[in-house]
Automatic annotation (TrEMBL), chains A, B, C, D:
Pfam families per record: HbpS-like
InterPro entries, per database record: GlcG_carb_metab_protein, PduO/GlcC-like, PduO/GlcC-like_sf
Superkingdom of origin: Bacteria
Designated name of the protein: Heme-binding protein
Species assigned in the record: Aquamicrobium soli
Membrane-spanning intervals of the chain: none
Length: 143, 143, 143, 143
């Protein structure tokens, strides 16, 4: 398993924010977690509200915790609300089950981390995350 | 009450993972709790995401907390959501109300522990738990 | 009050890590919080252990919560342990009372944020934080 | 970075318990965490009290969180009690600062996980952890 380096995390954030600028998105918070769910890097753009780290981190953490992108976690929450309630409990409230949390896979398919973005619509958040992951040479898995 | 020995817990885990291999299930985490809801043994297969202990443990804990297998706990959650909300609160978020948490009963019918499995579909998780419990000479109660 | 921009936070982190490289410090985590104690930016260097965000954030949060640098918070903890115990409680465990959490003051003396660094000795962590804050054109207040 | 496989975790546990039998130790709980602090495997011997998982896990987690074996974490707690209080807070009470939490390093020196043992004296717990790690072909770092 490749570790997700700080250098890679910076590339992901820079490219995600560049994509956001292209799409004229609202101010974002971009979280990069390692495979164990721990913070590697984060940036919050000026004007983004103050809980963006917690929300984006919750998307990325939920993806890592379940092994699928947070779009799939969101579907679980709709189809099996009681599972999501339980997951929220056992993770001590760390899971945010909406799109925008994207797994980072290496060339062998192994999960090396996750990106969580919050600030615009969930679909746009996810698009920025995917762009960032691809620009850094990894494969995004949005769920 | 017979105590659930480590030797029995190992047999349960080995047989559950053997069943999982037969069924070609995704990588699993297998939790064995004693009658007091405390951890006896756990194994997480390579490739299983990192919250498998918490999720499987939440299934087994919910079964022990209510005295029925977690399939019945899942039904409670659907039929009486406010009860489940309260149960989540008083257990400090330790209950995951979905199938895959199976009570371990001895020959007298007493509950000596519970097995919680997470990693594949809830139905498959439960099938592996049942196989493990039976192979160790106990009676499974899936709810 | 000037808001602490992401651009300033990046300058602080870059300069803090440059100082750390000069001093040959161990791998660091560098946290930048705004005046409300919310995360603006964070970077964890390769090889730094995984709780660096929480520890560094706890230094910066404690500084903001009391209005003095965390070196002074550390002295409070020694001189008035019961105050610190209470502070830990009301902050839900978010305060780490050791040096390395440095207030960021603007030219008028107003607190616009705080930097928290963790990874080397507390004194070295603090030196890197001070260097970062000065390089970004602010006044450090280490306590 | 090598991932800590379930097969390696089993070898560590088996060898730690064999060492414990040689030394005629009291019943133990043996926890193996991965590099992200997540549970890979656990076994609690018959007769060990029920919080052994939490205690042993707290030793291993504290080692991973600070990057040193828990013997060094214990020294930190004695020399800098307020740091330890802060660490306890930001880790949400997950750190147990006593010997018996030993880092697992691979041949390149990278931390791939940690073993935490609880049940006998801290020194004996640590001896069993070291024996287990060595038997599995890794390098123990007790702090």
């Amino acid at each position: 398993m490749t570790a997700l380096s700080l250098d890679s995390a910076r590339k992901i954030i820079d490219a995600a924010l560049a994509k956001a600028a292209d799409l004229k998105l609202k101010p974002l918070g971009v979280t990069v977690l390692d495979a164990g769910g721990h913070l590697v890097a984060f940036e919050r753009q000026d004007g983004a509200s103050f809980l963006r780290y917690q929300i984006g981190s919750g998307k990325a953490f939920g993806a890592l915790a379940t092994g699928v992108g947070s779009r799939a976690v969101a579907n679980m929450a709709i189809e099996r609300p009681h599972f999501m309630q339980g997951l929220s409990g056992v993770s001590e409230g760390r899971v945010v089950p909406v799109p925008g949390g994207v797994l980072v896979r290496d060339s062998a398919g192994a999960v090396v981390g996750a990106v969580g973005i919050s600030g615009d619509t969930s679909d746009n958040d996810e698009a920025a995350a995917i762009a960032g992951i691809e620009a850094a040479g990894f494969t995004p898995d949005a769920g």
